[in-house]
Amino acid sequence: MLRFLAIKIYITAMDGEVRNFQKENGHKSPLEKAVERTRKHFMFLFGNDNVSSKNIILTMISRFLIRSEMYEEVSSHFLSLVNKLGQWVAGDEKLKHFTGNSGNIRQILSKPDRIGLLFYELVGYLSNGLPYLLHAMQQTNDNVFAANDDTTENMSTNTRVVAKWGEIVVSKQSNDHCVLIFDSAYTIKNVCKVLDEKNVFYIGGTNAQNFLHLSEFLDGKITKPGQWEAINKQQTNQVCVSHYSNEKGRKMCMSNAFILQKVRSTQHKDDIPVYDHYGKGFSDCDQFNNDLQRHGWWPFTHGGRNKSGEEGTQDTFMWTSILQNTYHAYLAINEISSDNFEYFDFLITLAHDIYQDTIK
Questions:
Q1: Which residue, 212, 229, 255, 285, is the most exposed by fewest CB within 10 angstroms?
Q2: How many Cα atoms within 13 Å fall on the side-chain side of residue 15?
Q3: pLDDT in tens, the chain (360 residues)
């Protein structure tokens, strides 16, 4: 199994070369060709007797997939490497393109892939500032309409997702409270209530329509770009901030992690309380997804051999996330800059090291 893992890592690392070969030669089965070339590479390094046949490798690639029901176990391993959380973590979702046969396909036109499978992500950052996936789950028809247990009954899907994120924050935070950050899709009254009950600090982007009375009150006090206004609820320390920028128009966010105090100061368009923290923290999740796209997914389609294309897409998302987490953690632990050890060089080295360890 470790040898198969090493071979799959190596094929992933050769993603760019594989795609170029496919374009130049028009090969009808690029995966078979990639496996053949990878076998030759490992036979050269470790001997013919230590490398499985092409058919065995192809069968294992098609059958050994990381399905969404395995995500919770994989996430627990991600979390096992974390001693405590930093200043903040960010929750978001990733839409991975897929148009095959599935009842779990979602269409979100604001997402780059527009249509596909939707995955929830909780992302923190490591000591070197690189993003690290802490937890992942797929949105399916089952978890949209079903509750997990008595404590989450009658909750919306987003509320249950944020409740799970809150549990992780509580389990991993130090004496310095970690702030959970999420966008306006999650900032509803039930979510705020759940997090208040768990004593979890949060900052949420806010849709004005969900808190119309607050937005109307605050926006009425803002007349030109660069201005902001805030209001708080003393019983819960809940603060709502609205500001007006030239680039994004009127924006609002809500938090229980701040205390509103009257001080003598001059407002500046580049200094927006609460919202600045929201933007900076939320960028970690954006960076993780951008890095997934930049590093490249598993370069071949999944499906066939009695496996659905949906399971293949589930595997692609988590497989790439595992490799990226491993890379970022390695750089952090060894205090190495990504400029001195690039992603694909790391994968090739990792594949060789794993395979070498299997040779007696």
A1: 212
A2: 17
A3: 899 999 999 999 986 555 545 545 555 568 888 899 999 999 999 999 999 999 999 999 988 999 999 999 999 999 999 999 999 999 999 999 999 989 999 999 988 899 999 999 999 999 999 999 999 999 998 877 544 443 444 468 889 999 999 999 999 976 678 999 999 999 888 899 999 999 999 999 998 888 888 889 998 889 888 888 999 887 778 999 998 888 888 899 999 998 766 665 555 556 788 999 998 888 878 899 999 988 888 888 766 556 688 999 999 999 999 999 999 999 999 999 999 999 999 999 999 999 999 997
The two three-digit tokens of residue 162, written as one number: 């944020």
Tokens of 222: 């803002």
Chain position carrying tokens 């978001």: 92
Locate the DSSP E strands across the chain: 88-97, 106-107, 115-125, 131-138, 179-182, 201-206, 228-233, 238-245, 249-255
Cβ(43)–Cβ(51) below 8 Å = yes
Task: Enumerate the H helices of the chain as residue ranges.
Answer: 2-13, 15-25, 30-46, 54-63, 71-80, 141-145, 157-172, 189-197, 212-219, 275-295, 309-334, 343-357
Distances (CA, A) of 23 to 26, 30, 297, 302, 346: 6, 10, 17, 19, 26
Asked if 11 and 35 touch (Cβ cutoff 8 Å), the reply is yes
| Upper half-sphere CA count for residue 2 (Cβ side, 13 Å) | 10
19: helix, strand or coil: helix
Output the pTM of the full model. Answer: 0.90
Q: Any idea of the CA torsion for 106, 107, 108, 112, to the nearest 10 degrees?
A: 100
Structure tokens at 27: 């090969």
Q: How many residues does the structure list for the chain?
A: 360
Task: Report the SS3 class of residue 123.
Answer: strand
CA dist 115 and 95 (Å) reads 7
User: What's the CA gap between 295 and 130, in Å, rounded?
Assistant: 14
Residue 339 CB neighbours (<10 A): 6
Quick count: other Cβ atoms within 10 Å of Cβ 153? Answer: 10
β-strands 249-255, 238-245 pairing: antiparallel
Q: Can you tell me which residue has the tokens 């249509």?
A: 115
Question: DSSP secondary-structure letter at 87?
Answer: S
